[in-house]
Structure formats: structure tokens, C-alpha cells
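Replying to the earlier thread about multi-chain prediction with a worked example.

Input:
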Amino acid sequence: MNAFLALIGRDLRLAIRQGSAVGTALGFYLVAVSIIPLGLGPDLNLLSRIAPGILWISFLLSAVLSVDALFQEDRDDGSLDALFIGPLPAELIAASKSLAHWVTTCLPLIVITPLAGLLLNIEPASLPKLLAALLAGTAGISFVAGAGAALTLGLRKGALLLPLLILPLFTPFLIFGVGAMAASPGAFEQSILLLFALSVFSVAAMPFAAALALRLGLE
Amino acid sequence: MGGLRGNGTGNTSLAKIEPLGNLNHQLKKTEGVKAIVAEGLACQRGGYTVVSGVSFELRAGSALALRGPNGSGKTTLLRTIAGFLPPSAGRVHVRPAASGADEGYFHYIGHTNGTKPRLSVIENVSFWQRYYSGAADIEVAEAALDAFGLLNLAGFNAGHLSQGQARRLGLARLLAASRPVWLLDEPSVSLDASSTRLLERAIALHLSSGGLAIVSTHLDLALPESQVLELGAASSALQ
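Result:
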């Protein structure tokens, strides 16, 4: 447990000192959200109707932007070997990395989502629903992305392959995330529960997939 | 940057060997392994058998030097012993000194140092301490840095270190977090003569407290109590 906390603590500290990964994700999110309305024309009703979809898609793209670096740096500087020979099983190393990704990338993106929503003329009343859906679903996104990053580790064009690999896996998150904003009664509750279920499944299962990929990568 | 230059190896005089009292205390914990045994070990790399028929028995307090030309499989053998690669034949196993929980016996230092340029020198060492031993012990961390002549750089960003200093920082985690078996792959690369002496002294200290070391090197590294395993050229890989 101490080793797990030590690893998380180091990764958070590195993310804060480096800042570039978080900054890139936030910048990409805001730019994507602000240029889409320019392509849609001056229809405010249309904009607020499709705002949740735009926010979710931009969020997903921003979240995977720097995920290829999740294990890459540790592999390149030899830390991954030293982590593997240490007390943590590979599954927990992968879980800690995914958790660090959620805290350093998804959480800041959620925090600026109200601002991004403002750019899309989203109804203020639906903002809490959107944030709740993001909080419920994005943990799963980080863990799926972590498994993808482990799988493409060491591939020369891994950074390009990675979105191709994991974005299709985000489809259920996207469907239920946008579904949570639907006006029909009960839609929000059902979608939130399904998002939670997806996240719980990903958090529980993805570290095993990531560990398998990491072990193969060590060879 | 004057401080960096001030740490020329002239300052890391070998006369400062004494402040290892804290380490001696910490190193008592290295007596966890009675022996490490390889029986008919063969290792593959990319489908080719690089090393085969390796057998040795290394007892606590002694070192094994792996020698051989480039491509003879020193790194592959070390990574197999570390458990990163499955052996293609034979096996290698550790005889623990006492039956108990296997909390991991190895330190592995490969060609890269496992240091983070954005963390300070002392933060790097403390992280590995926390990771391997569960808690940071600042006195032991400083003693480990001192043993590699890095104590006066403790507050510096590791990214500002020279190659040799970064190598020494990577090696410092061996002493900062105590584990019984050291697997070192060309540990003296980019070290100057006096830093190599520091490394030899650290290995000797580790062995004298009951640890084991397997060291690949094509330079002459003075290892006390050592067996030598000569690995041939990669002839089998060429067939």
C-alpha cells in the first residue's frame, strides 16, 4: 500500500512540475470546444441541443491526447524495470498509473467543463447533470486508456495507434454520457448507473489487461 | 551551477568512507537470501537462444561477474534472472534464508538509471526508498548519497547532473533501500576512476553484510569473493 501511494505521489508531483501534459489537454479541450460553434453557424438553439455531445467528444479526445506517455517515460529512463522488480505487482503499477491519469488529466478537464459549456450555450440547469455524468464515467476512461497505453508501449508509432485502438472502446461511455442529458424521465438515473457500472468494470478489469501487456513489453 | 562544478570527484575523497554508520544499520536487512541457484539456464532473445547451459550457485556474501564480448548475452541473462524474461530452458531460483513472505529480493540496474530529471537528487532516492521499503528514511538516504559522493548535490534537480553523476544517483538506490540481491548491468559505465572505486566499495559493503551481487561488466571491476562466468560470443544466435 505504501509503495502504491509512493508511486501515485511521485506521478502527481511529476505532473505538477512538468505541467505540459495537463496544459496540452486543457488547451486542446478549450480550442476544440470553441471552434466547433464556428463551423455550425449562428443557431443558438442547435448549439445548446448538441452541446453535451460536443463536450463529451472533445473531452474524450483531450483525455487520450497525452496518454501514450503514461508508461513511456518510465520505460525510457529505466524506472519501469525498477518498479517491476519492486514490491508492487504489475496490476497495481498499471492501476496507479491510470489513477494518476484520472487525477492529472480528467479531473482538470471536468473542472473547466462549466467554462467550456458556457462557450456552447449549454443550459445552466443541465450543467450539474453533465458534471455528474463526467465524474461517473471518466474513471473508466482513464483505466481503458491505461490499458491501451500499456499495449502500445514500445511501438514506434504507438502514439498514433493508441487513439485508433481506444476511442472505439469509449463508445458506450459516450452513448450513456450524452444519454444522461436526455429530457425523458428516468434517463439521467439510468445513464448514470450504467456509466458507474462501466467505470467499475474498467477499474476492476483493465489493470489486468495492462499488466499482461506490460509484462510482454518487458521482453 | 557553481555547486555542480564544486562536486568534482576531487571532493568525493575516499577518505570520507566513514559516514556509513546508518547504512551499516540498514544493511543488516540484506541477509534475506541464502543462495541463488541456476540450473541449465538458457535464455532467448527475439527467438534466438543467446545463452544456454548456465549453471551456478551463488551463496550469500559472494558476487558473480558476468564477462563476455558485446552480444554474448550478459543483459539477457541478467533480465532472465530478474524475472523479466522467461527462461527457455532450465531454471533459476532463490533460496531464502528464512521461510516467510516473499517481498522481492532483487535490485536491478540496467543501462538506464531510473532517475527522474524533474525531481531533486534526494527526492529521487527517497521515492525509491518509499517504494521498496514502505517509508523514507532521510538519514539512510543521505548516507547512500554520501557513499556515492552526491550529498552536496542533494537539493539539485537530477536533470542538471552529468552522465556520471546521474549514474551514481541511479546506483544510490541500491544502498538507500536495502535488498539482498543486486543485479547490475554494466554499472560502471560513464563512471570515472574514483567513482568506480565508490561503486566497488558499495558492492564490497553489501557482500560483507550478507548480500549477493551479479554484475555484468567488460571492464575490470574489483569484486571481492567473486566467481566469474565467461559468456561466449553470440555464436548460437548466428546459426
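The longest strand of chain B covers residues 33-45.

Feel free to reuse this layout for your own posts.
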